[in-house]
Amino acid sequence: MRFSLVIPARNEEAYLPRLLETVAAARGRYRGGADAVEVIVADNCSTDRTTEIARQHGCRVVRVERRVIGAVRNGGAHAAQGEVLALVDADSRIHPETFNAIEDMLARPRIIAGATGIVFERISLGIALSGIVFLPLVWLTGFDVGVVSCRKVDFETIGGYREDVLFAEDMHLLMALRRLGRARGQRLGRARSARTIASTRKFDRYGDWHYFRIIWRGGLALLRQSHSADDMAREYWYSDR
């Protein structure tokens, strides 16, 4: 097994099928063969047809009880049998060349881990400016989103995702991988030729300009070291409404 694609999911019956269709296409295009890619759905106690859909598409299902995104990602990753871990959100869609692009990225000795980057499934001025706000962070740090990938041995060395935070767990993971890579003369990379299509469902629900409110509220809460950042995260990312 070369790749393990881990998909954290809770009540994703509306979005999971379209992701898994793109995963099937990408497995079919992988130079190492489709059978070298396993797909794991880390189910966070769904009450809809998420697990049924996952099994219908030939995925392994790992149930994770704890309602923390880092724990859900870790639950799927710990069950993985592949040499390379790739993680993507259930409401995304991946590029047909995803596994080939990641393979090429990690074949470079100076790359420890990386991500594909994203394009939004729809665009507007508010969504475009929301993305532009994060570009300096991407350029300065190498952190990116989309399909995040690394070798499983490195994932285990850093202890996987943090489970004591409710959000930004992917940033913490890439920070830890970057620190590990520095000792070896390695850095983070990007597989930008296979960008992931990111869902805009949060923009659809909260409005195309809402990220600026989130950034402001979250930034103030973090500066004040208050619990309101966690309260905001529970409302924004963990609500089942």
Labels describing this entry:
10 helices, 2 domains, 241 residues, 17% strand, alpha/beta, two-stranded parallel sheet, 7-stranded mixed sheet, Spore Coat Polysaccharide Biosynthesis Protein SpsA, Chain A, 45% helix, globular
Describe the structure.
With 241 residues, the chain is of the alpha/beta class. The protein folds into 2 domains: 3-207, Spore Coat Polysaccharide Biosynthesis Protein SpsA, Chain A, CATH 3.90.550.10; 209-241, no CATH class. Helices cover 45% and strands 17% of the residues. It has helices spanning 16-29, 50-56, 69-78, 98-106, 125-141, 152-158, 169-182, 201-206, 210-224, 228-237; strands spanning 3-9, 37-43, 60-63, 84-87, 111-115, 118-120, 148-151, 187-190, 196-198. The strands form 2 sheets. It has a 7-stranded mixed β-sheet. A two-stranded parallel ribbon has the order 6-9. The longest helix has 17 residues, at 125-141. It is globular.
Average of the residue pLDDT scores: 92
Distance between the termini: 38 Å
Strand arrangement within the widest β-sheet reads 3-2-1-4-7-5-8
Q: Which stretches of 5+ consecutive residues score pLDDT under 50?
A: none
CATH fold type of the largest domain: Spore Coat Polysaccharide Biosynthesis Protein SpsA, Chain A
